[in-house]
Amino acid sequence: MAFYYEEPSRTFSEYLLVPGYSSTKCVPSEVSLKTPLVRYKKGEEPALHINIPMVSAIMQSVSDDRLAIALAQEGGLSFIYGSQTIAEQAAMVNRVKRYRAGFVVSDSNVSPEMTLEDVLSLTERTGHSTIAVTEDGGPNGRLLGIVTNKDYRVSRMTPDTKVKEFMTQIGDLVYADEDTTLKEANDIIWEHKINCLPLVNKEGQLVYLVFRKDYDSHKKNENELIDSSKRYMVGAGINTRDYEERVPALLEAGADVLCIDSSEGFSEWQKITIDYIRKNYGQSVKVGAGNVVDAEGFRFLAEAGADFIKVGIGGGAICITREQKGIGRGQATSLIEVAKARDAYYEETGVYVPICSDGGIVHDYHVTLALAMGADFVMLGRYFARFDESPTKRVNVNGSYMKEYWGEGSARARNWQRYDMGGEKKLSFEEGVDSFVPYAGSLKDNVGLTLSKVRSTMCNCGALTIPELQSRAKITLVSSTSIVEGGAHDVMLRDSK
Hints:
- The chain is α/β, with parallel strands linked by helices.
- The protein is built from 16 helices and 24 strands.
């Protein structure tokens, strides 16, 4: 006879936090959101931390190198999606590791033989007023000069005027060596009263541009997530099929941590993949696994050697696994049970294995609830897909700006490896949808707002750290009626426009 759970599985929206005593020292500015990313032994420090408890989902429509850089600047971590070629994924990882904040790779370039018409067309297309002139017209060609709107007057020049006739020549430019630090670059800019400083290598090839207008944004973010070489940290997704080729390539590119991307992690396939990594790299390579929804699944992956474990099946905004296959569990119930198993495992073995809540986050307060229920960090897809930095297009739908967002199990992504059960190499049926989400602006502004709410709520619970929140939180189930009571009700709302 099948096993039946006595209690229904529940979602985050069925719970609320009950306020606890907060002292005068419990203010949002004093809250630390630093949290362990990978397993560690009692009395030791984990090899990897993240500074905010947010990581981005391993999805085509969410995590590319641009979003990875933006999130690392705020203290979180992205997992570059694996449903692309190994070379393409490794290149994305490498771009994050090579990125230097404030150092811009020129994407508006011309050659000296091109014309004013080419310059005007490029300016109109990119909106950039500073254009590098290189020998081959490429971003890394030998620098010959710069063109700005001060170098030409459309009313007095013909469109076919060659760039070499009106550009500012290299001999009249202030430029610096590629090893110049950002502080040194900004000092040169201010000293010489210039708007742009090119950085070139020993062969005279253009490497970066540093702009005066970006000075304020160049200031160090004390929360940024960097490695021992002061490079931004980045993760990468792998699968249980081509890991023998993909893992070495990602490590060579500089990936700080890996994660097996699968819809269901209680599987021998995941153990085989982890065994390969341990055999070839020992404990030096960190790899997460999942997803699971109960204590048994957690124990399996913890004993297999996973460095962190993802919790959640079917709770994502674009996931239809529950509809298609009838498997899954409410995210809150899954997280509560796995957190208890994690704590029991720690007491038994002295090894702490962080858990990541993946899916089911609809409102900002759900992040705080997930942390209070035991998550060390949360993985977000829809949340990050809404921002400028996500890789998808911004489109106008019925007068409102939206961003495209599709699941890895959709016909668009066709990431069969994520749903692989050892059969044919194909996606037999969809487990995700193709959709839109409301455009929300910049990642920095939105993450800042979300974390302000998290810090404030933690203070309401009398907690200044995530472990304190988990030990002190009081959580209550709510009725359907009290959910209605929790929003605006019995009033006529004013038009805010």
